[in-house]
């Protein structure tokens, strides 16, 4: 049942998303959709409607964090801050905001495809609820699949008991999502290791120099920090790191 109007569009969109997630391994959402469809949305009390809406909204941030480029970006930026030796600079608010904007930038083509292929036709009434979730998830599915390692994908397919599939597009979303997440973490750790190397060499050089001069009472970190900041500024570190991060998704 589809209710016309802005409120009806939002409710039917929630039901369509619930139906899609049910098909991807969350059957209780499918039961909820079926129950609400039989009773009619107007028969459901406003309190229950608000509860369902808040439940869906509470899950959306986790889904967006672990199914987009946000995980890799924020982990790499955190490693960079630790490698320089300034755990409080940039502040967490700046780091998260930068990671969010970089996520929007890298995911813009995917979001555009979702809008053109699914959201816009659905709002215009040319796309049914049953077709909304497959059309909306296809661009995100392709993006995640490109960034996921085969070993991680095989691990979760084996644990889920998913046998050979007809093609990459047939891999269930609930199997692809965790495989994509741990692949992103591994890639972020690899980039973090490379970021640590030049600063580690500088720390070792400063510590050796201080020991040779007999200056044991001066912490090496206090002396190496200005030089690490100078090195990062001279090589235009922010430009290099952000460029490498964005290009790693292409």
Helix content: over 70%
Rg over C-alpha atoms, rounded to the nearest angstrom:
24 Å
What is the N-to-C succession of helices and strands? HHHHHHHHHH
How would you describe the shape? elongated
Return the average pLDDT rounded to an integer: 78
Low-confidence stretches: 1-12, 25-33, 38-43
How is this structure best described in words?
It is a single chain. This protein has 250 residues and is an all-alpha fold. Helix content is 78%, strand content 0%. Helix 1 runs antiparallel to helix 2 and helix 4 packs parallel to helix 8.
Task: List descriptors.
250 residues, mainly alpha, 10 helices, 0% strand, elongated
Q: Mind sketching the topology for me?
A:
Blueprint: H1 6-23, H2 27-39, H3 46-66, H4 70-84, H5 92-124, H6 129-147, H7 150-160, H8 173-212, H9 220-234, H10 237-247
Helix pairs in contact: 1-2, 1-6, 4-5, 4-8, 5-6, 6-8, 7-8, 8-9
